[in-house]
Amino acid sequence: METEQTLVLIFVAFLAAKVGGEITERMKLPAVTGELMAGVILGPSILNLITEHDTFFDVLAQLGATFLLFSVGMETKLSDLKKVGMVAASVAGLGVVVPFIMGYYVSLLLFASSIEAMFIGAALVATSVGITARVLQDLNMINSQEAKIILGAAVIDDILAMIVLTLVSGTAAGSLTTLSVVIVIAEAVCFVAIVTILGTRIVKYASGKREIRHDKNVNGTWAIHYSTRAFKRDSWFDKLVQKEAPFVVILIIVFFLSAAASFVGLAAIIGAFFAGLIFSDTKDTYELERKFEPLNLLLVPFFFVVMGAKVDFGNFAAIAPYAIILTVVAILSKLIGCGLGAARKGEKTALIVGAGMVPRGEVGIVVAMIGLNMGTIGNDIYSIIVLVSIATTIYAPFLIKTIIKAENKKGDRG
Asked: In this predicted model, what pLDDT tens digit does every residue of 99-156 receive, in sequence order?
């Protein structure tokens, strides 16, 4: 592809993504839905402007996925795991086990091979609670017991989902023997342990993590005081003379861990996720969210456009029934699994928590992308997973609001 054509396509794809995102956000839907639909329109299904032979867009998409998963990792603070409690842990655990088992066996029974069914199960494990948080905020419930359980469970869910994806992608790369599964599990456990335990300690040591203490002044106003009690030396990052040195070093670590994950046979974006995880407790020190936001605004839309362009609607009539069945499975499995995990807090809380964990969003699509790139799943199954991710993300807000209204009416009658 000539340089001029590439630049024109970049302009068209980025503009389409932003217009699509603007339209869907005005419809009270997540921007990702509009970005995906922009990709469908630009892809082979309609305009055929972005094809599977456009490797440059695949590179942009991979970079977008890398920074997207890094950002997700930064939101998953390891220190928060100590605060979420047993209820959130059981919600996350059952919210992983039940969807994986249901997704796996339903797919295996209807249309998929064992490896394909594993990827479908892994895609149904994922939870994207950004839309749920927005709904609860609109309903003034963001500080409710249900919201705390959902957000706490999401922390554990993200980690468990990445571990499941690690196991599935590693298993798909070899043969389904007991030895290969044991080796994959060992690799996954070692990678996760080394990165999260050793990596977190190294990052804190190198950054000289500053503790933030809020004190009241004499006049009653609040002030922020920084303390270096945790470490009696300056940050290694601050000794570098390069402009924005911490940001540069973190970019290097993101790419290194992505390459390391790929080298040991895991998905590269798993390395990016854990890179975000080890910097989650130090992100405020160097304003990482603000500094990475421009990269996300530029690259993440290309990921969703390319993912949308890979959806094949040429065989829509054939895949639609399976997409509908799996959407029902995706909704019921989270309602059952996460609801059972929160059952000790009462019926209302269990239903709201189950509904809040339903959206699959971008995480489910990332799983589908990995399976497609590995050649483990075909375009039909990829399209089914994307449709399920979109459907659950769109339907979840209506489900949450319906359950809350029904439970409130039941409470009023009681």
From this structure: 999 999 999 998 888 888 988 998 898 887 666 776 676 677 766 777 778 877 876 7
Q: Higher pLDDT residue, 403 or 105?
A: 105
43 DSSP 8-state letter: S
Amino acid (1-letter code) at residue 213 = R
E strand or H helix at 225, and its extent?
Answer: strand 222-227
Asked if residue 102 lies in contact with residue 174, where contact means CB atoms within 8 angstroms, the answer is no
Phi-psi category of residue 242: left, alpha or beta, with phi > 0 → left and psi -120 to 50 → alpha: beta
Name the phi and psi angles at 326, rounded to 5.
-70, -30
The reported pTM is 0.71
How long, in residues, is the chain? 414
Residue with tokens 């499975």: 329
Do residues 93 and 157 make contact, with C-beta atoms less than 8 angstroms apart? no
**Helix 379-413 × helix 130-138 angle, to 10°:** 20
Q: What is the 3-state secondary structure (H, E, C) of 155-209?
A: HHHHHHHHHHHHHHHHHHCCCCCHHHHHHHHHHHHHHHHHHHHHHHHHHHHHHCC
Class of 3-413 in CATH: mainly alpha
Partners of 381 in beta bridges = none
- Could you give the 3-state DSSP secondary structure of residue 378? coil
Domain assignments of the chain as residue spans, ordered by start = 3-413
